[in-house]
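Q: What does the predicted 3D structure of peroxidase look like?
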Amino acid sequence: KGNTQIALILASLIISNIVVLVVSQGQLRVGFYSKTCPNAESIIRKVVQKAVADNPRNAAILLRLHFHDCFVQGRDGSILIRNYEDDELKAQGNLGVVSFDIIDSAKARLENLCPGIVSCADIVSLAARDAVNGPFYDVPTGRRDGRVSKMSLAANLPDVDDSINVLKSKFNEKGLSDKDLVTYIGATACFFMQKRLYNLTPGGGSDPAIIPGFLPQLKDKCPFNGDVNVRIPLDS
């Protein structure tokens, strides 16, 4: 439990680095809603803390939601736009992203108190911070919600079939280091490695990007048709 908590804290701080990159390009500031909706952050915090208390997995789930929103077009809440055939959420890299009900709950409470004031983009960012019981950090707010959500725009998200070199490249493009990559992802599960281990190349070959000396160890931990929930280290 302790190691999981530390990992969540580190991941939260890494995602905040992406936010900093976005902040430098927009007119955002800490305490943006201090006059228009002064209780906004405390309301979001209460909703999130209850959700995490009810199900501790929600902490990691909210962090993942925030990361996937930030990675595509910056922190604009576009991942929340649904009901389109080609919306962002349908991208392969967004497989399994959930927890919209928590964001919806916070938004509903804010709309009752301050209609049309607090953006969903800010709720996602504040929720990610408040989901982790770690060091508090200020979140600049004032972001307007995006209106465009297309699957093609999310094509560069980290994907389950990406080699470690591709993952490094995708993180580096966002100003994140290899250390950030390892801290955020840390490990993967056999479910996400089956294709790379047994069926990436014609005829059922393994991913040639995997270090040859490491391949037998990965296959030993993840046998073909074995337990897909077993956790394994990244092939870096």
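A (community wiki): The structure tokens above were generated from the sequence. Confidence is low (pLDDT under 50) at residues 2-10, 19-25. The chain has nine helices and two strands.
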